[in-house]
Amino acid sequence: MEALNSEPNLAVEIAGIKFKNPVMNASGTFGLEKEYSIFVNLSQLGGVVLKSLTLRPCPGNPPPRIFETASGLLNSIGLQNPGVENFTKFCLPGLKELSTNIIASIAGGTVEEYAAVAGKLGESEIITALELNISCPNVRHGGMQFGVSPSASAEVVKSVKAATGKPVIVKLSPNVTSIVEIAYSVADAGADALSMINTLTGVAIDIYRRRPVLGNIKGGLSGPAVKPVAVRAVWEVYREVDLPIIGMGGITCARDALEFIMAGARAVAVGTVNFINPEATIDILEGITLFLKENGVKDINDLVGVAHDTMQGF
Amino acid sequence: MIHSPKTRIVSQKMIFPGCCLLKIFSPEISRTAKPGQFIQVRILPLLDSTLRRPFSIHRVNREEGELSLLYRVVGRGTTLLSMERENDFLDVIGPLGKGFNIPEGKRKLAIAAGGIGIAPLFFLLEELARSENKDYTIYTLLGARTGEELILVKEITSLTESFPGGVEIATDDGTVGHRGPVTELLEDVLANRPVEMVYACGPHDFLRVSSAMLEKHGVAGQFSIEERMACGIGACYSCVCKTRRENGEQPVYKRVCVDGPVFDANEVVF
Predict the structure, then answer these.
(1) Which residue of B has its CA nearest to A58?
(2) CB contact under 8 A, B49 and A252
């Protein structure tokens, strides 16, 4: 009975980085500072993923920036951020006290911008890894023009890898014909890990004003509505590409997180649900731990991709 | 600021069709809340992925540990909220945001409410009535679409009766008071009274017109701004409004949840 009573192993390794557990927040939901520390002990999480940074300050899109849909959230924030230099000066020092992995997210309009931001952030010891946002649908030059093209995404990855020694995680867009093709391409270009999925592009119309609801017209859909799409993306890429995956898209509870893990994700990120339940990340971590104990699983790594095992011969 | 996942509803009643008054038991929030601040309410806890909804605090009863929300039923969230009953529970975060302030030396005040915009302004009036300074002059201007939708007139009249000023009313259909928008009353007060600060809350167009009037008369104002909101704590940058900067620099989007919801009237770009 020892196995049942002992604490299961939750630690996972991605791109040479040790994560004390597989739960982190998704980029854009926890800001650039410690906003959520009023609800959550951020150091308990496997990692904290920052809001995307651009080379220069980015004003963001005109409001309205969000619209609630059936089990989903359409947003067009537009990467509002103070730029990498202001971030480094004003926000970064405060993150030093967190004892967890800090993953900075990078967006840009040109390959050179990505490389420049990566170079600047690469100098910081506080930042553990970089996530390349080549999939933001809300800014014309927000990266999705790279994320939908296998060759352009590879180019961004190569230039960032040349600019920094930090591990590089590439966040993939679901707004493509074949996510596997993009995953192959960034893997070849030297990506250390993949995160998926970013939001799905969408439009909502205000029928009384006879115009789109969002100030930016198009937005990115997140929340429970997109979860099956995200699990499918993880499922497909896990089978084809030999890189660790951080899974995300509509996770609201431990069961959702475990779906991603069994589909092939080595870690998960929790996004939209934080706005509804600000303690969701910790609740999910506790729920995963309980599931492992109740089911006699000693190591979370034993569940990664386990749903594929039953599929042999299919 | 506290997060209280189980906040009991003390009472809920419909004031007129489509407008509800909800009272909840929350000693922590009622003790620390300031006029103009808001709370984030999760309806149907644990069952549903609907976002929280932000509501201005309408009034507090610190002795009883209660606070009230006054809201119109306009969409999915407020429809669900309106179906909650006494002894049901809500999941509440608050108090949040920057409220109204009364600058030193400003004593001649106007309160201008467009419709349900009276919700946070009533709390401000209560605090003014409770304050030790009794030398305020308060002009209270209330607007509504019809006499039926005109609310709290008796309470506001009694709250403000010890102050010089008075309560004036405008309805769109002229059933009570001045016939026309409440901004016409505001124009009259700004032109003829020595007002030093205007507190306003209401529909976007009402605030836009009021803002232009304040600029014309060179009077300061504080507006409570509404925008679709997600996190409520400044992390997600969903609920922004466009604000002016000095020196002719490009306007910036500020977060209504933490930089507001109360902004200086001359700061907001309408």
Answers:
(1) B252
(2) yes
Cβ separation of A64 and B42 shorter than 8 Å?
A: no
Predicted ipTM? 0.94
Structural domains in chain A (count):
1
Are the beta carbons of A65 and B233 separated by less than 8 Å?
A: no
| Gap from A230 CA to chain B (nearest CA, Å) | 17
- Nearest CB partner across the interface for A35, out of B3, B76, B234: B234
Using DSSP, state whether A60 is helix, strand or coil.
Answer: coil
- Asked if B49 lies within 8 A of A223 by C-beta distance, the reply is yes
Instruction: Check: CB of residue A9 under 8 Å from CB of residue A21.
Output: no
Nearest to B253 among A29, A60, A272 (CB): A60
The answer to whether the Cβ–Cβ distance between B234 and A36 falls below 8 Å is no
Residue listed under structure tokens 């896990």:
A238
A312 assigned to some structural domain: no
Q: What is the pLDDT of residues B229-257, one digit of tens each?
A: 999 999 999 999 999 988 888 899 999 99
Does B240 contact A279 at a Cβ distance shorter than 8 Å? no
3-state secondary structure of A273: helix
Average pLDDT over residues A159-169: 97
Are B241 and B235 in contact by the 8 Å Cβ rule? The answer is no
Domains and CATH numbers, chain B: 2-96 (2.40.30.10), 108-264 (3.40.50.80)
For A277, the domain range is 2-305
In chain A, % of residues over pLDDT 70: 95
Q: Cβ of B238 and A35 within 8 Å?
A: no
Residue with tokens 């359409």: A74
The minimum CA-CA distance between A27 and chain B, rounded to whole Å, is 10
Nearest CA in chain B to A29: B236
Q: Which residues of A touch B236 (CB under 8 A)?
A: 28-29, 31, 75, 77, 275
Q: 3-state DSSP call for residue A290? A: helix
Q: Which residues, at least 6 apart from B100, have a Cβ–Cβ distance to it below 8 Å? A: B34, B35, B36, B120, B124, B199, B222, B224, B262
The whole-chain average pLDDT of chain B stands at: 95
Give me the active site residues of A, please: 136
Residue A314 inside a domain? The answer is no
Amino acid in the structure at residue A22 = P
* Structure confidence by residue, pLDDT tens digits, B189-215: 999 999 999 999 999 999 999 999 999
The structure tokens listed for A32 are 């650039």
Class of residue A78 by CB neighbours under 10 A (exposed 0-12, middle 13-18, buried 19+): buried
Q: How many helices (H) and strands (E) does chain B have?
A: 6, 16
Structure tokens at A248: 């995300």
Residue A80 lies in a domain: yes
In chain B, which residues have their Cβ closer than 8 Å to the Cβ of A278? Answer: 3, 93, 231, 233
Asked if the C-beta of A253 comes within 8 angstroms of chain B's C-beta atoms, the answer is: no
pLDDT, tens digit (0-9, with 9 covering 90-100), for A104-138? 999 999 999 999 999 999 999 999 999 999 987 66
pTM here is 0.95
* The residue to which tokens 């609310």 are assigned: B151
Q: Which residue of B has its CA nearest to A279?
A: B3
Q: Does residue A313 belong to any structural domain of this protein?
A: no
Choose the mutation target among B28, B52, B240 for the interface with A, i.e. most A CBs under 10 Å. B240
CA–CA distance, B217 with B202 (Å, rounded to integer): 20
